[in-house]
Specification:
Layout: H1 3-6, H2 9-40, H3 44-48, H4 62-68, H5 71-102, H6 112-124, H7 129-138, H8 146-149, H9 156-167, H10 171-179, H11 184-195, H12 197-213, H13 216-221, H14 230-239, H15 248-255, H16 259-275, H17 278-281, H18 285-291
Length: 296
């Protein structure tokens, strides 16, 4: 590109408006989080009187003392952590083991097209909520961590994305390894997986977010708050505060707080852990999404 054109007035105006738009967009995403954080750290009068904007008024950490000191919240938090860890590990394993064979040609895997449609049809036609509930109940998985993990353990969309990525790997690399005596397991573990870290990281992050934010299955497949994940508990607490989940000392502390401060503290409590994951995988987003998104 001609450097004179690149540094022209039109290019500078475009950069200015581009950065301004991205800055405004970033503020639109950041300011609501700042407001909720300020609200969670404000006293009852300021929060109840709608006087808090982006800075706490009447600094108060009682809402966080109430959240972190309540065993019901901590139990739900640990269930969400266990559910996310198990769900992510199983989903990644199933994704890789299904996508790698499907990335082969018809001559390498007989019946590949038929097997591929076996995966695609359930993605287009869902069995529905009632059959899923009956299946989980008949398998005696109700009120267990597996009822939250296993229904989403075969993410078909991610399998298709990973399959396209594997198909984009240079065939000569895989064939040279096979000529050296490596079997398919060795090729997958030592060549295909290291080359696909961008897609794996992207799928990992999406899976973590899906499991962490899921609340409806906890409401359907569990009958008591003892097995509720964090998001299910927070959803119920947002509707109405269940005082049976608190001790007498907690209720006294709760009466001194505004409902808005307490709910804001719950939101921060549920949001911060998943936000901490993003910086470690942010650099994989663009490459991971685009490499496996298009089939050549």
């Amino acid at each position: 590109m001609n450097p004179n054109i690149r540094g022209g007035m039109g290019s500078k105006l475009f950069d200015f408006f581009n950065y301004a738009f991205l800055g405004i967009l970033a503020l639109c995403c950041l300011l609501p989080i700042v407001h909720v954080l300020a609200l969670s750290l404000s006293d009852a009068a300021s929060a109840g009187g709608n006087l808090v904007t982006f800075w706490p008024k009447g600094f108060n950490v009682s809402a966080y003392r109430l959240v972190f000191g309540n065993p019901v919240f901590l139990n739900s938090f640990l269930i969400s952590v266990a559910r996310t860890a198990l769900g992510c590990a199983i989903s990644l394993l199933m994704t890789v083991l299904a996508a790698y064979p499907l990335s082969k040609d018809e001559r390498e895997l007989r019946g590949r097209n038929a097997i591929r449609w076996i995966f695609i049809v359930p993605m287009l036609i869902n069995g529905g909520l009632v059959p899923g509930f009956i299946l989980i109940r008949n398998l005696r998985l109700m009120n267990t961590i597996w009822a939250l993990v296993l229904p989403g353990s075969v993410p078909i969309f991610y399998i298709i994305m990973m399959m396209n990525f594997f198909r984009g790997i240079n065939k000569s690399i895989l064939e040279s390894a096979a000529m050296d005596g490596a079997n398919e397991a060795v090729v997958l573990a030592r060549i295909a997986l290291p080359l696909s870290m961008a897609s794996i990281a992207t799928i990992t992050l999406f899976t973590i977010v899906n499991h962490w934010n899921s609340w409806f299955d906890g409401l359907i497949f569990t009958t008591g708050r003892e097995m509720w994940p964090l998001q299910t508990l927070l959803m119920q607490m947002m509707k109405s505060v269940d005082t049976t989940a608190f001790s007498s000392g907690d209720i006294t502390l709760l009466n001194k707080l505004s409902d808005r401060s307490f709910r804001a503290a719950q939101i921060i409590f549920a949001t911060v852990p998943i936000l901490c994951v993003y910086p470690f995988m942010q650099r994989y987003f663009i490459s991971g999404m685009t490499i496996g998104a298009v089939k050549e």
